[in-house]
From TrEMBL:
PROSITE patterns: SIRTUIN. Residues 19-346 form the Deacetylase sirtuin-type domain. The lineage of its organism: Eukaryota, Fungi, Dikarya, Basidiomycota, Agaricomycotina. GO terms for cellular component: mitochondrion. This is DHS-like NAD/FAD-binding domain-containing protein. It comes from Sistotremastrum suecicum HHB10207 ss-3.
Length: 365
């Protein structure tokens, strides 16, 4: 398999830098989105941009480029390698992920998540596919949706951070695994507590790990899978249930994502550059099926060259535009429907704290 870090073609980035935003007023932008949603049966595809208002940093800035030019993802093959080298990668991953998980676990849905839920409740949006692994769409779902029902409507294309599994597929809830990591790593637990007490926040990536420069995680202990140990065949290779770079989306998930596009009449893509191929191919699939596609994203996307060829783009903040569209479309229904009212008045914006604290434990300290 060819492994590459997804990127947006340089010519699109250059063109975007010189183009003005596509729409000039919120009212015009919201009307375009409302017109798109009005006939119903819309599928939505979301990306990291949707979670930024929940305080979760996106990998790319508004210009579509990586915010950290030195960004080096961990590849799947490194993470699961059964060797001292693989062990070292897992120590690095789990140490950073141990520190990065609490802010993701505590993150709350923002107005965009709730507006999308309101449109699912009103029947305009029928399915949602997300590239995000933070679980925030589930947290913002209509109150009467069971877990099972939510799972049939919301597909996590790249998995979730909220479970962990071994190579034999034993699943553990992430909060339970996090407790085990705390017990096994008192020095790191103390560091995490210290950061929390000081009110500082580590620089967390959307995949739930933090950036630690020059820190040493050689002492980080990763517990074996408990179920495998009980069966007498210990497995030390645990990973969160997210798709890593170089790892394929499972066939069943890929199939379901295509089904979601096939079952809808239109596709609305929000807060993503669609640089990742698993997202871009859904857009391509919609175009092949001649389904109208709308991009709601600030900044360039990989699909910008398709604007006017079955794709339209609204360059505006998603929370604002979706709420304005909801008020225009749902009007009197909002005061009559308590669930709709609840969803459209929920969600807070959590600013991203730029402070990068790096007094992590060092080797020998
Ligand atoms: Zn196991």
């Amino acid at each position: 398999m060819r492994i590459s870090i997804p990127h947006i073609p340089p010519d699109i980035l250059a063109a975007s830098a010189s183009n003005p935003p596509l729409l000039s007023t919120l009212t015009v932008a919201a009307q375009r989105v409302a017109d798109f949603l009005d006939s119903g049966n819309v599928a939505v595809l979301t990306g990291a941009g949707v979670s930024v208002d929940s305080g979760i940093r996106a990998y790319r800035g508004k210009d579509g480029r990586y915010m950290n030019p030195n960004y080096k993802p961990i590849f799947y093959s490194d993470l699961v390698e059964d060797s001292p080298r693989g062990f070292s990668f897992r120590q690095r991953y789990w140490c950073r992920s141990y520190l990065g998980y609490p802010p993701i676990a505590k993150a709350r849905p923002n107005p965009t998540h709730y507006a999308l839920s309101a449109f699912m409740h009103s029947g305009h949006i029928s399915r949602l596919v997300t590239q995000n692994v933070d679980g925030l769409h589930h947290k913002a779902r209509p109150s009467y949706w069971t877990d099972k029902y939510a799972a049939s409507k919301i597909l996590e294309l790249h998995g979730t951070l909220h479970t962990v599994h071994c190579r034999r597929g034993h699943l553990t809830r992430r909060d339970l695994f996090q407790n085990k990591l705390s017990i096994a790593n008192p020095r790191w637990k103390a560091f995490m507590d210290e950061v929390e007490v000081s009110g500082q926040r580590l620089r967390t990536n959307p995949d739930g790990d933090v950036e630690l420069e020059n820190a040493s995680w050689d002492d980080f202990v990763i517990p074996d899978c408990e179920d495998c140990s009980k069966e007498g065949t210990p497995d030390p290779v645990l990973k969160p249930s997210v798709i890593f770079f170089g790892e394929s989306v499972p066939a069943v998930v890929k199939e379901r994502s295509f089904e979601h596009v096939e079952a809808c009449d239109r596709l609305l893509i929000i807060g993503t550059t669609t640089a990742t191929y698993s997202a871009f191919r859904l857009l391509k699939h919609a175009i092949e099926l001649r389904k109208p596609v709308m991009l709601l994203n600030v900044g360039p996307t990989r699909a910008d060259s398709l604007i006017g060829k079955g794709v339209e783009k609204v360059e505006w903040h998603s929370g604002e535009v979706l709420h304005t569209a909801a008020r225009a479309m749902l009007g009197p229904r909002i005061s009559e429907d308590r669930e709709l009212q609840r969803l459209l008045t929920s969600g807070i914006v959590t600013p991203i704290d730029g402070t990068f604290d790096d007094h992590a434990p060092r080797a020998g300290s």
